[in-house]
Amino acid sequence: MSEPFEPKIVAFVCTYCTYAGADLAGTSRLKYPPNVRIVRLPCTGRISPMFILKAFQKGADGVLVSGCHPGDCHFDHGNYHARRRWTAFNALLQFTGVPEERVKFSWISAAEGIKFAELIDSITEEIRTAGPFEQYHKLIAETGSAASV
Amino acid sequence: MAKIGVFVCHCGENIAAKVDCTKLVAAMEGHPGVAIAHEYKYFCSEPGQESIKKAVAEYGLTGVIVAACSPRMHEATFRTACAEAGLNPYLCEIANIREQCSWVHNDGEQATRKAIEITRSLVEKVKRNNELQPIEVPVTRRALVIGGGIAGIQAALDIANAGGEVVLVEREASLGGHMAQLSETFPTLDCSQCIMTPRMVEAARHPKIRLLTYSEIEKVEGFIGNFNVTVRQKARFVDMNLCTGCGECMQKCPAKKISGEFDCGLANRTAIYTPFAQAVPNKPVIDSEHCIFFKNGKCKACQRVCPTDAINFEMEDELVELEIGAIVVATGFQVQNTALYGEYGYGRYPDVLTGLQFERLASASGPTGGKITRPSDGKEPETIVFIQCAGSRDPSKGIAYCSKICCMYTAKHAMLYRHKNHDGNSRIFYMDIRAAGKGYDEFTRRAIEEDGAGYVRGRVSKLWQENGKLMVRGADTLLGRPVEVAADMVVLATAMVPQPDSKELGKTLGIGYDEYGFFNEAHLKLRPVETATAGIFLAGACQSPKDIPDSVAQASACASKVLALFSRDKLEREPVIAQNNEATCSGCWGCVLACPYNAIEKKDLTDRSGNLIRRVASVNAGLCQGCGTCVTFCRSNSIDLAGFTEKQIFAEVMGL
Fold it and tell me: B211: helix, coil or strand?
């Protein structure tokens, strides 16, 4: 029997809120599935739609974008830009046939370690149910997955 | 050719117990561009750091990855070590394999695989890191202290006594905060006013301290060393320069039945008032909400009697602009809304009081002159029941934490009661007695052994009135049976909660707060008075419930942090800022719209004879805070963020 499918999830998070929340989950010794890989950025405003595509290109089955709660952005309003950008970009992704559940968006503050662990639990389960993201795998096979940038 | 050194830290067993560090090292050794990979028990220790420095020199490393704890913990430590070895500190990155790997996963094999991926992706990133130079910014040697309670006053005095300028902002009309309301203080039974009021006067008279009472923070901009703060000085309707504080106006004010905040509603005040007799500054304000003139346009009794013509009904709020180098937040706490405890009858029965109200009753400056009597009929109570943890340590009421001071002040209340009424009985319902502190446990023992404090371990379930008595029903969990006490007065040790608007202030300042609204420190153990925002510090109960000694200690710690900052001519800032490539910039100004700091300016590119070629965006390094929102906006890919460039992030993702 083959191994059960374990999805790969790439999370783009801001350093002030969600990254700190993920650290808090660690210092609180909460447990969550090891499927998520975190890329730390100064602010969700820095997250380009290209990063999300790059993650899929690398073989991610799901992407998470997470930052500070509305009104709490360390940089005043970077998270609003991120939300607007994500809304527009996700609509485009859906139009091109990428299902909505592949790209998640959430707010997690530095105090919400529990919420972070629960979120990773739930999205890992959702993506696991959705199965491998084959659409991009074909493309990866064509272009090669070597770390060429 | 990149020569990256990978240093895998065991963190004792914190990492090594889950992640197979040897396997991680082996995986890294074979990775392109990695010159060496080492493991060690504690890389943050002296020998650990030395071994990194040695490796940098020996192998001529062009980049360093430390796979260890969160970069929020030790990034600065390892970057400094690299700098000491001659490597640009921004060529060092941290792979977080503790908080985000070994601590959160059970399966060792999976954790090891994840650790390898995390480390590999940062190796890919660091290969593309550039040497960066810290940005130098000047320091304004003036501190802003928000809150004029004991913590704020202590911080202000410590800074001012060392020669720093201080602006002390207090929201109320007088300095003093909660400490000025207390009767005696545990464990020495010092009179609170006697130790507090001289400090208030000292702060007000200090030549280096500018006092802004009846004022609130309106706006905070800028960054460490260079904050621009706007303070709203609320209209007092009394000219501070003309007023002599004679008090004639307060005598004559006809609006006399206003519930006094300082006495927690146990006494009334007038519409023109000073919060208390020892107020600093001892000059009144007009409470426009209750003033008869403001309500119906007639009265002006105060204006008629004022011998110096200091009353000015036309006065308006004033905005004061301040240039500030560092901010100390000392905004204190409030007492929890007792309406949460309907079963204790607070508000329904006049003789059910909060601990703070009892302080006012026991205080020589209080409404009864220090005589403990019932608010309902003025009689001396024969039995008082104290209920501890009335709000604290009760997740069902939304407060899971311990308020820390209630065990001590309840013991003190029982003592003061016995000292003033030698036949008085006190019964204290408690969950645990938490008396950790110098002289604290001895103090509670004294309350029990010398002053007859009767401790009952258990909770109170119900309280009702019967034959002029307050009947208190609870459980004695040590005897395992219900108890009923007929009391004349009940005192609730209500929880300490943050100021109701602490979250708004947190947003104005750009500092974090927890689920309750207490401000977050940068690190609970190692940076307890700093916030995650450089240049903003925390003192006193705005961070968590605290007693006076802790608040004072923290305030002095803040002062030492501020003074350390002021001892420097220039500050170094992280060079994580946006950089624009003027050659490709099309001048669409998308970045200008995106920037929250107005840090992007329009710059003219001219030829040699001064003719305009085109206009491009230019980043003001002093204003840019490095969020990178502009980078994502840029249509021509001209702007990039140093330290988090497009190339670096793409490489990081591809390394996963």
Answer: strand
Domain range holding A88?
Answer: 9-143
Residues of B within 8 A of A147 (CB-CB) are 124, 651, 654-655
Contact B641, B626 (CB under 8 A): yes
Q: Computed from CA positions of residues A67, A70, A75, A81, in that sequence, does the dihedral angle turn out positive or negative?
A: positive
Q: Is the pLDDT of residue A145 over 80?
A: no
Report yes or no: B223 and B135 within 8 Å, Cβ to Cβ: no
B71 in A contact zone (CB under 8 Å): yes
DSSP state letters, A41-66: ES-GGG--HHHHHHHHHHT-SEEEEE
Closest-CA distance, B12 to chain A, in angstroms, reads: 15
A1 domain-assigned: no
Helix (H) or strand (E) holding B305: helix B301-305
How many domains is chain A built from? Answer: 1
* B136-149 burial code (b ≥16 CB/10 A, e <16): ebebbbbbbbbbbb
pLDDT higher than 70, residue A139: no
Residue A29 class from Cβ within 10 Å (0-12 exposed, 13-18 middle, 19+ buried)? exposed
Which residues is B481 bridged to in the sheet? B476
Among all chains, which residue has been given the structure tokens 């992280």? B574
Residue B60 DSSP class: T
Considering only the beta carbons, identify the residue of B124, B512, B655 that sits closest to A110. B512
- The domain that holds A22 is classified in CATH as 3.40.50
Task: With CA atoms as reference, report the closest residue to B144 among B134, B135, B155.
Answer: B155
What DSSP character marks residue B383?
E
- Quote ipTM for the complex: 0.92
Geometric angle at alpha carbon B297, from B296 and B298, rounded to 5°: 95
The answer for B 115-154 residues in CB contact with A (under 8 A) is 117-118, 121, 124
Helix axes B406-420, B440-449, angle to 10 degrees: 40
Contact B170, B146 (CB under 8 A): no
What is d(CA B91, CA B75) in angstroms, rounded to the nearest whole number?
A: 11
Q: Using a CB–CB cutoff of 8 Å, tell me whether B104 touches chain A.
A: yes
Which pLDDT band, with edges at 50, 70 and 90, does A146 fall under? very low
Residue of A nearest to B513 (CA): A111
Residue B437 predicted with pLDDT over 90: yes
Residue of chain A whose alpha carbon sits nearest to that of B651 = A149
Which domains, from first to last, does chain B contain? 4-127 (3.40.50), 143-177+201-232+318-332+501-566 (3.50.50.60), 248-305 (no CATH), 334-497 (3.50.50.60), 578-655 (3.30.70.20)
* Interface mutation target, options A10, A43, A69, chain B, most CBs of B under 10 Å: A43
